[in-house]
Structure formats: C-alpha cells, structure tokens
Design goal:
about 40% helix; alpha+beta; two-stranded antiparallel ribbon; 11 helices; Cyclophilin; 7-stranded antiparallel β-sheet
Length: about 260
C-alpha cells in the first residue's frame, strides 16, 4: 500500500497507510507538488496544548492588524462570533492574516479538540480539485481513533452549521452561506478519538432542512445531500504508530513535514 511519512519537530517519523480510493490518489498527486513546503501548524492546532485564552489572544492580535475592533466581553456569544465570521467571509482575500483571524473563532465556538489537521492552507489552493459525486458517497459518520479522513473545507458552512448558528430561515441566505462539499482541498485530518458524528438534534435539524433541501440541492447542482454527506468524512488512511504520535503531541512535538514513501 502507498504511504505518507509525517516528520515531527523532534525528527521522529510516523507513517500513514493510505486507502485504495480515488480521494487518496488525489492526495498523493497533490503531495508530489507540496512535500517541499513546511506544514502550517500553529499554537491552536495542537489539541493537547490549545486553550481558549490563546485563541482570544490570537484573535485580538490579528483583528488589530486587520483594523477590526473586537469586544472581548462578547466572545462567549454565538451571535457575536457569527458577526466575526461574516467579516471574514466578506473580506478574505488569500492573506494569511485573515486565516489567523478566522481560526480562533472556531476554537471559541467550542470546536471539538479531538483531531489534528495536516495542511498547507492556501499554498495548496492551486491544486484544488472538484469532488465527483461518487467520491462523496464514500462519506461515513462512524470514525475511529487513528483514522485519517478528509471532510468539509469550503469557505462557508454546512447546512447543519447554518441552522445551529441561528442564521435566518431564508433560502436565499442559506444558499449564500451554506455549501455542500464542492472542492477537494489538501487537508488530512487525523482523528484522535472514536466518534459518531451524527448530532443528538438530528431529527430537529432534518425537520428544518426538509423545507429547503430540494431547492438548496438544485442551487448547487447536486442530486441529493444525505445525512452521511452533511456529517460524514471520507476515510483516506490510517496512522500506524498512533499512540506514540499522540504522546509526542502532548510533549509539544508537532508535525512539520510530509512526504511520499515508496514501497
């Protein structure tokens, strides 16, 4: 099987054994162009060391650089975080400062710190591919520790996230802010815990989404958008030395580089 090697900041190496599917093949093709670049891995990307205080500090720092006033007393409010999201969505222009502003917003939204992302951000954007619909049928909602997955990476929200954030009950606005998985952007996520990604309020969401689903699917030119596709991820591989990788993260040894390993 094809493998990817992760090098960490203490020069340890770990292998990802790839699945035999077209999404994994796309990862290999992209990595042939990207492996010389360092991974983007900041203070908020290590789930064992990330804190909300660090997120607030980064948000305020980069907001200041971008000329945005942030009220620290409002950062516990989802409505206020939605407002900050909207600023990002309207102004993002590929500048890394906007990414540094956006990332802590997700941490403050109680994003589950149960995964590690290996990515190059917009440096990989020129390699983006459009998902084929049959690839999206590979999405699954039961994920296990050590599995490597890819998922939603759009500039926007899933329909569930749109509903959860209390956005307007308006199909026009739903189509503006909410997207299906359209593009495959290089981002490998290592899952750190076993989990089922179906939320407890699924039935309540389904009742709401049923009013808009057909029109929303038609807007994006897709035949359907299932529960698995809204909440699921596509498995692309498995980290072979998972426990030692996690131990290294806890000690502050973070991923810095990827490369293809030939059998």
């Amino acid at each position: 099987m094809k493998k990817i090697e992760i090098t960490t900041s203490n020069d340890n190496c770990y292998l990802i054994e790839l699945e035999n599917n077209s999404v994994s093949q796309n990862i290999m093709a992209m990595l042939k162009h990207l492996y010389r670049l360092p991974l983007r891995f900041g203070i908020l990307d290590n789930p064992y060391t990330c804190t909300k205080d660090a997120a607030i500090k980064q948000l305020i720092e980069y907001a200041g650089k971008l000329g945005i006033d942030v009220n620290p007393t409002e950062l516990a409010s989802q409505k206020y975080l939605n407002y900050l999201h909207s600023i990002y969505e309207k102004n993002y222009n590929g500048n890394d400062g906007w990414l540094q502003f956006h990332e802590p917003i997700h941490v403050l939204e109680n994003k589950a710190l149960d995964q590690v992302n290996l990515l190059y951000d917009e440096r990989a954007g020129f390699l983006d591919k459009k998902y084929q619909f049959d690839e999206l049928l590979l999405a699954q909602t039961k994920i296990f520790a050590g599995e490597c997955i890819v998922g939603f990476s759009e500039l926007g929200k899933t329909p569930y996230r749109y509903w959860q954030d209390g956005e307007p009950d308006d199909i026009v606005r739903l189509c503006e802010l909410s997207k299906p998985m359209l593009r495959f952007h290089f981002k490998i996520t290592i899952n750190l815990v076993d989990k089922n990604t179906i939320p407890e309020d699924l039935e309540e969401f389904n009742q709401w989404f049923s009013k808009y689903k057909a029109e929303w699917c038609n807007h994006w030119g897709i035949p359907d958008w299932s529960t698995e596709q809204i909440f699921g991820h596509i498995k692309v591989g498995r980290l072979l030395d998972f426990e030692n990788f996690c131990l290294g993260l806890k000690q502050g040894h973070v991923p810095i580089k990827l490369k293809i390993v030939n059998d």
